[in-house]
Amino acid sequence: MAVLNIKNLPDALYKKLQARAKREHRSVAQEVTHLLSDALEAPKLLSILDLKGLGKEHSRELEPSTHVARERSSWD
Fold first, then answer.
1. How sure is the predictor about 35, in pLDDT bands with cuts at 50, 70 and 90?
2. Whole-model pTM?
3. Residue ranges of the domains in the chain?
4. Which of 58, 1, 63, 61 is nearest to 30 (CA)?
5. Is the Cβ–Cβ distance between 24 and 31 less than 8 Å?
6. Which of 3, 16, 43, 59 is 20 to 30 A from 30, alpha carbon to alpha carbon?
7. How many other C-beta atoms can be found within 10 angstroms of the C-beta atom of residue 51?
8. Helix-strand-coil percent breakdown of the chain, rounded to 5?
C-alpha cells in the first residue's frame, strides 16, 4: 500500500479534516482516503428513473398545465 505525506497543509484545513473524520467515525487517514476516492471516481450516471422528481422544489408553485403550455410555446 502506498504512503502519502502532505507538506505545508494549513492548520485550519487540518482542523476541518479532523472534525470531519470525527463526525464520520474515521481516522484522519481514512477520511483523506475516502475524500480522494469520492473526488477521483467517475460520476455515477443516473437513469431516467433516478431523475424522477428532480427539480420539483423549483416548480412546486407552478400549475402543471400552465407550465406545460409555457414550455411548449418556447419551442417555437
1. very high
2. 0.57
3. 7-41
4. 1
5. yes
6. 43
7. 9
8. 55, 0, 45
